[in-house]
Write the structure tokens for this entry.
Amino acid sequence: MAGADSWFAVYGRLRDRVAEGEEDRYRALVWAFGYDLISPIDVERREREGSPFGALFEFQTGRLPPRLGDVPDEDVAVWVDAFDEVDDPRLRSRIGDLLWERRVEPRYDLRVCDACAALLSLANDDSWGDMESTESLVRALELARAVSDDRLEQRVVDQSVAAIESELDRGDKRPGISYTLLRALTDLPSKQRPPQLRDLVERTESVYGDDPYHFEATIDLLAVLASAEERPELRRRQAERWREAARAGQGILRAAFLERALDAARMHGLAELAREFRVEIQQMSEEDLDLKLVSSEVQVPAEQVEQFLAWFVSFDDWQTCLTAFGRHGPPGGEPEEAEREYERRRAAHPLSFLVTRSLVDPDSGAPVFHATDEASHRLVALAQHRLLAGRIWSAFATEILQRLEANYGRPSPEELAKFFTTGLIDTAIAERIARAFDVYWDGAFDDSAHVIAPRLESILRGVARELGVPVIREPEADKPGGVRSLGDLMFAVKGRLPSAGWHDYVCHLLVDPLSFNLRNVIAHGVRAQISAEDAALLLHAACFLRLMRVSEQPSDRGA
């Protein structure tokens, strides 16, 4: 115990001194100091663990230590003996706390008071770590309140105030100590808070307020202590502080800070301020973000590429060529393949899935999505998988379309219209598809994309109608009706296209804001010019949709 600066240090010393073969004999004491004391604000983990003590290590095959409720009674008996025999605050604080959480008779309430006193002693011990001392005071306050010991609670509050004042007087940039203790005191019922608490919180602004994150933490505390009339102005200051930080920052940091300002204004009902922030975000260009290009290269043997491309124009006529073109895909494969790729990347680069990832709209430069947890990281990874696969395919698609014209000659508009006329594509739409191909071969790629994109939507709406999916919204009271959005329709027909992979790809190509989103990019006029590669992807999608037929199934209707 002597001189150890944390419970983990005690754990390490005990573990290292246990002789080989004696592990079971001493495991109870090793376990006691191997627990991780979970912060009171981490409610979810405490609920998952069933106590304030969590595993120090978790493996696929188990955990160390076991859950507190799973510790065998014979090991708990060792804790009781140790608590009675060893008069050291490092041991009595931890084991007394464990016995309290296990409600070990007799008189566990007395043990918890001893544990609380030991925690106060540790917080004053210069050899005990600074953050460990902070955690000791926070836990001592919890324990004193749990047993309703007002005198003990007052001791903890007084010692916490003294620790905060000492830390603020130092002026060091160690905000974690002050804010952790202030949060614990602020969470007390109003009558039990120390009278100088608001002054202490306001002092943090002068010590740490130059950082907008710390300033926000100060405002969050003040908002709890302030009256209802004071809170709107506090929240306005919070939002304005993020705007100040944005104006002082550059590149993507500026955009991130403006988003924080917008979030704060929106969350606290500052509608006018939120509108101002939206305008500032909209005015940012991609150049303002100061992004750096990071690229990688994969070598593919030229003969393999040539063999792949040559296959598409190896048929007797252009009709078979376009049919083969439409059958190729979907880029990115079926969902199972995309999931495997996601798991592979997450295993190979786990850290990249732990930090926030921001997606920036390539046209407006504004952030459109933030991946912050496992579900959102997965969503982004799957979308980017489709995007990358589609980008690679687009390079081949442009070459295939060029070779088709060179090898077979350009089909006439009448021939193309006849080729694309099917049970799901009427003659009028087929004629516009033919026009899109014609202007594409003229080199007017932007014109081609603008002609073909709304026709793809028309075809998909026709598919939805054939499948019995409503494509319009009925009027309701004073709200007029209209057409359902394409994204809504694509969700409604999920599972009813030829394959899940094709459904995912078409969604990403046309309406997914995390991917190509070409239907919305074109319809909303947000891009100055559509590239040859993107236009080729839209023409490829038309060739795929031409192959679709609606068939009756015994149990359902499907495409």
